[in-house]
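Students often ask why inverse folding is considered easier than folding. One informal answer: many sequences map to the same fold, so there is more than one right answer. In these notes we will look at a single instance of the problem. The structure comes first.
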């Protein structure tokens, strides 16, 4: 192995070590893959090297900004006698007046000059149009941006935690002996059970119930929430959808239509109190009395979307939230106002409901919906002892 190759690999490992010291997990295999990738890209092209490193060394979205900052410390504009963009770096001899500059040699130089300021702009504070759209609040979007967000919501994939049922199924890796099957096979050996048969409990998705507020205070979020409901309904089984203003309306059949625009329009037409008043307690009372026994069973997860403005009886809301919380496996409340740094749940309705909420999360932009997707997929089998609040 040549000295130049040794230096190249040494500085690739140095870059990986810097990432690990900053808190970004990078394995040896990832470092080796990155070194191989640099032989396939234009090593003088900053963007190609950046995307190769980002795709191979970063595995979590929250590490991107830190990664970009560290990467920028190892890269600066090439001097005039450096490699020309668009040409691959080679090991051929260059005239004595020229010097071969690549990311490996630059990393070594930056390691020696770590205390000197970097004279290039930090790209970690800038976002692509797609990134800005993810962070932009739904209430501030233009009609064109809302159309883009609707398409992105439609393409989202959802997953809800699973549960063990009482039903048992044959499973060679199970931990429960299947006595009936074992005794049946024993007839082959004169009644001696020589073959052991195993079984395990069947795993199924938990039922998922969605209830959204479509009153006047939630008008600017209502149709997007229906888009969200449509996406969930077509990604999961056993999903029930309801909306309420002053009364409760079940919209599950309407959202089963394949055309999303037709499904949302049909669901909106069924709601007679769209953009009207808000009676959360009365709507939940009707849900608990007429629907909960049918749809909130076998460890269901219930998700309520509302800003918590209650025009009716707050004590009724408190009683119905207690009843619903007792019947379901987990009760999640999404509030679009929670995305604001200054928000405090001081309105009577939200204050009355909050003690019975397991997860209190924002739903003000696309990023919050994606965080919700990850949260739903990571839910465990047991209810958390304290509510989870996200901002």
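Output (designed amino acids):
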């Amino acid at each position: 192995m040549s000295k130049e190759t040794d230096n190249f690999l040494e500085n690739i490992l140095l870059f990986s070590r810097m990432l690990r010291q900053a808190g970004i997990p990078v394995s040896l295999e990832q470092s080796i893959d990155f070194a191989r990738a640099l032989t396939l890209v234009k090593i003088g092209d900053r963007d190609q090297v950046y995307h190769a490193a980002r795709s191979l060394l970063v595995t979590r979205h929250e590490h991107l900004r830190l990664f970009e900052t560290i990467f920028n410390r190892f890269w600066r504009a090439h001097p005039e006698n450096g490699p020309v963009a668009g040409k691959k770096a080679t090991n051929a001899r260059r005239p004595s007046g020229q010097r071969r500059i690549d990311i490996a040699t630059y990393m070594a130089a930056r390691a020696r000059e770590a205390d000197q300021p970097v004279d290039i702009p930090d790209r970690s504070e800038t976002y692509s149009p797609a990134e800005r759209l993810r962070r932009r609040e739904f209430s501030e979007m233009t009609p064109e941006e809302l159309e883009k967000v609707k398409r992105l919501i439609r393409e989202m994939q959802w997953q809800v935690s699973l549960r063990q049922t009482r039903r048992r199924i044959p499973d060679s890796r199970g931990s429960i002996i299947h006595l009936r099957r074992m005794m049946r096979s024993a007839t082959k050996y004169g009644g001696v059970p020589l073959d052991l048969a195993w079984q395990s409990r069947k795993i199924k998705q938990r039922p998922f119930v969605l209830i959204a507020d479509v009153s006047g205070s939630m008008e600017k979020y209502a149709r997007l929430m229906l888009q969200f409901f449509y996406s969930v309904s077509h990604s999961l089984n056993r999903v029930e959808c309801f909306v309420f203003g002053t009364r409760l309306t079940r919209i599950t059949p309407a959202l089963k239509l394949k055309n999303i625009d037709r499904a949302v329009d049909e669901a909106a037409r069924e709601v007679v109190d769209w953009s009207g008043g808000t009676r959360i307690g009365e709507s939940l009372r009707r849900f608990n009395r007429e629907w909960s026994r049918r749809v909130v069973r076998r460890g269901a997860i219930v998700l309520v979307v509302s800003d918590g403005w209650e025009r009716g009886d707050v004590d009724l809301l408190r009683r119905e939230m207690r009843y619903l919380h007792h019947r379901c496996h987990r009760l999640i409340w999404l509030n679009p106002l929670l995305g604001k740094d200054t928000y405090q749940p001081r309105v009577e309705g939200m204050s009355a409901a909050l003690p019975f909420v397991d997860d209190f999360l924002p739903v003000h932009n696309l990023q919050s919906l994606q965080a919700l997707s990850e949260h739903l997929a990571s839910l465990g089998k047991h209810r958390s002892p304290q509510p989870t609040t996200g901002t």
